[in-house]
Amino acid sequence: MASTTSGDVLPTGGRIFTSIPDVFFIPEFVFGGLVWILVASTRVFMENPEGWVMFVSVFCFVMTTLWFFIFLCGANQSSIWPSLDVGYHFVAAVFYLSASVALAYVTIQLGVLSPILIGDSLKIYRLTIAAVVMSYVATLLYFLHAIFSAIRWKRS
């Protein structure tokens, strides 16, 4: 019975910049950081779910950074890491999807409740729209990373 070693499954070091699921690390940093910055620069109104959006963006940014450095240093060579990779990126995609939907709802309500946006209100509205777009892009990136990691896990 042939056994496969996990050393051939997950890349380490500079190879993470060339393997297909792991190349998503950098865009995840960028778009997740943009969500964090854009939401942090807006005004939070009462009963606003932007706290959840901030939690998701900060949590995923920190965990993706930790995940990136684990892969970069080569500490991912145990047989459990491919399944952990799929699990983390799936949870991150679900978290970001829930945060994106909540943020989009708040943005729609902001536009409906204030049909005439001028000055600072218009600026906040535009920042929130940008945060929604970046949040959905981050959701897509985490989802793609989860799918390609699942394919890699299935091959191992």
UniProtKB/TrEMBL annotation:
It holds the Pfam family MARVEL. GO terms for molecular function: structural constituent of myelin sheath. It is found in: Membrane. It comes from the Eukaryota. The chain crosses the membrane at residues 23-46, 52-74, 86-108, 128-151. GO terms for biological process: myelination. Belongs to the MAL family. This is Myelin and lymphocyte protein.
